[in-house]
Amino acid sequence: MAGYSFEIKILQVVGFITLVYILSRTTGKIFGGFLGGKLSNTPDSINKSIGLCTIPQAGVAVAMALVVFSNFPDIGNKVLSIIIASTIIFEIIGPILTFRQLRKAGETN
Q1: Continuous H helices in the chain
Q2: pTM for the structure as a whole
């Protein structure tokens, strides 16, 4: 249902908001992971990597966007388009970043 409701033309209108969302979410994940690691006395090799390991996004964000889509038709399509576009980006780059960061932290074979 979510993919069916996605309209690529709407990204022309909300493209900037999508970019801001992607950058803000990524920055928050990196900073939050680093701060959480520092507060829990985790080694720096993990503190610097954990944020990027949490980049992938999927089910919950899309489900919440579908709720907005259903309950707020005036903005629902825009919100759904932002979330689906960002989910596609995060699901493409997320696993790659996660693997690189785990390898960098010495957590893979």
Answers
A1: 2-5, 10-39, 44-53, 59-71, 73-104
A2: 0.74
